[in-house]
Design goal:
Nucleoside Triphosphate Pyrophosphohydrolase, single chain, 9 strands, three-stranded antiparallel β-sheet, alpha+beta, about 25% helix
């Protein structure tokens, strides 16, 4: 295999800058009573599934594990995290995508975030609290009420 030329490397970098994409993860964590974990951030309104952006040099599953522990103290092994769906979130940022994972088994630990989360709560997925974000509400309807899956967040 040939080594990329300087011209190739410059073009690849320009292409990445020109067509950059962002990637986020959200987790569906269900307790023994069938309730789903939602949280409120201090910096944006509404109730959301736990999650966030995938960092450089981080796999998506590792990102999901990190976000769950930071935001809610949820500890999950990588083998217990299963990809459910992929959604385009272009309304938030052009070329943004969100991966939704179901967390099969988990244990409760201590949240490690510092002031990012205002409230964490397990709720009835068929009757989420007022103010639940539209994207979160759609994912709950898809997963728990049999709604058709959308590619859009």
């Amino acid at each position: 295999m040939r080594k990329p030329s300087l011209r190739d490397r410059i073009f690849q970098r320009w292409f990445r800058l020109r067509r950059s994409a962002t990637l986020g993860v959200r987790g569906v964590v269900v307790n023994a009573e069938g309730q789903v974990l939602l949280l409120r951030h201090t910096y944006t309104p509404g109730w959301h599934l736990p999650g966030g952006g995938v960092e450089k040099l981080e796999t998506c599953v590792l990102s999901m594990q990190r976000e769950l522990e930071e935001e809610a103290g949820i500890i999950a092994e990588a083998t217990a995290i299963e990809l459910v769906s992929v959604h385009a979130n272009h309304a938030f940022f052009p070329n943004d995508h969100v991966l939704v994972y179901r967390v099969r088994t988990w244990t409760q630990g201590e949240a490690t975030q510092k002031g990012e989360i205002a409230e964490v709560r397990f709720v009835d997925p068929l009757a989420p609290p007022e103010g639940t974000s539209p994207g979160t509400r759609r994912r709950l309807d898809e997963l728990f009420a049999g709604a058709a899956r959308s590619e859009l967040w």
